[in-house]
Amino acid sequence: MNTLIPAQIKKGMLAFVLTFSFADTAFAAVQTVTLAVPSMDNCEICPITVRKALEKVPGVSRVSVSFKNRDAVVTYDNAKTAIQTLEHATFEAGYASTVETSNKQGVAQ
């Protein structure tokens, strides 16, 4: 009969702990959300300001702002940031934003 010695138990416990400590990152996903930014007026700088504010948010990998559509399409890592953080970033830049209705759940597109 094989019996575990303390060193083997420690290694097994360490492997177990390490496996589950990285479980959160395994569930992280790249998400894409469209933010409505209706306050972008007839100003050439507005889309640039919104884009730069969103690009500064940790976890954001891509931003596309449309002046014509008054929106911003943002691709981000949901393990590093949240939709509320994106909305706050545009608000702090002077442009309130909200998730477009089709994206209320923050589902990846």
UniProtKB/TrEMBL annotation:
Annotated transmembrane regions: none
Pfam families: HMA (PF00403)
Cellular compartment(s): Cell envelope
Principal subcellular localisation of the protein: other
Signal sequence interval, chain numbering: none
Residue ranges annotated for the HMA domain, each copy included: 31-98
Any one GO molecular function term: mercury ion binding
GO CC annotations on file: cell envelope; periplasmic space
The name this protein goes by in its record: Mercuric transport protein periplasmic component (Periplasmic mercury ion-binding protein) (Mercury scavenger protein)
Origin species: mine drainage metagenome
Taxonomic lineage from the root: unclassified sequences, metagenomes, ecological metagenomes
